[in-house]
Specification:
The chain has two domains: about 100 residues, no CATH class; about 130 residues, Bacterial polysaccharide co-polymerase-like, CATH 3.30.1890. Helices cover about 60% and strands about 10% of the residues. A four-stranded antiparallel beta sheet has the order 2-3-1-4. Helix 1 crosses helix 7, helix 2 runs antiparallel to helix 7 and helix 4 crosses helix 6. It starts with 6 loop residues before the first helix and ends with a helix.
């Protein structure tokens, strides 16, 4: 016999297991909040901007061709900024206990499309260290690019500064808890339907009819505990008589 599930049955299952669904959702949100606030290390970000322009010796000859040439150089500069040649000097100047490879993972270099402005962003658990790394990386690059490519076309546009009350960029507890709520809700619904599917007990006359594939001829009404006790009392009284 083909088994069908109506929309009403689905809502009945959800209503029946609503406590379980809410409980799993609350547990997921609570665990996410505890991890976000207590276990995860806050990470701060600081950024500095450099400008790639024409060589300083040719400032008066600035034209569109120079801009196009500088834009083509930016991709190369993005690689050089994160290279060991630059980062090793940054580590040396700041006396950092890290390696160029590890420092590379903390730095992000990007630029807007058709823009000569390059942004150097640094993430670190210490906000002041993030500022120092960003500014030192920009300064070292500005100095070293003259030696590496024999050009002097980089200037510091906006140095990184330490905010009075810096806010971490990650983790985001509210976002993490919202995601955990969705996951907990989905998990709760899934567990509810799984329990309903695994529950093979016979609950009503429809279950008996489907199980035996026989028509129902009659029903026995449920007897409450009070009715049973009253019957026992009556039997006892009759025996005494």
């Amino acid at each position: 016999m083909e088994e069908t599930i109506s929309l009403q049955d689905l809502f009945k299952t959800l209503k029946k297991r609503i406590t379980l669904i809410i409980l799993l959702t609350i547990i997921a949100v609570t665990v996410s909040g505890l991890i976000s606030f207590l276990l995860l290390t806050p990470i701060y970000q600081s950024s500095t901007q450099i400008l790639v322009n024409q060589e300083k010796a040719d400032v008066t000859a600035f034209n569109s061709q120079d801009i196009q040439t500088n834009l083509q150089l930016i991709n190369t500069y993005n690689v050089i900024i994160k290279s060991p040649a630059i980062l090793s000097k940054v580590i040396e100047q700041l006396d950092l206990d890290t390696t160029p490879t590890a420092l590379n993972s903390q730095i992000t270099v990007n630029n807007e499309q058709d823009s000569q402005v390059v942004s150097i962003s640094v993430q670190d658990p210490n906000p002041s260290v993030a500022v120092d790394i960003a500014n030192t990386t920009a300064n070292v690059f500005q100095t070293e690019i003259v030696k590496l490519m024999k050009v002097d076309n980089v200037s510091i546009l906006t140095p990184a500064i330490l905010a009075e009350n810096p806010a971490p960029v990650k983790p985001d507890p509210i976002l993490n808890m919202a995601i955990a709520a969705v996951i907990g809700l989905m998990l709760g619904v899934g567990v509810a339907f799984l329990l309903e599917y695994l529950d093979t007990t016979v609950k009503n006359e429809q279950d008996v009819e489907e199980l035996l594939n026989l028509p129902i001829l009659g029903l026995i009404s449920p007897i409450s505990d009070k009715d049973i006790m009253d019957s026992k009392v009556q039997v006892t009284q009759r025996r005494k008589r």
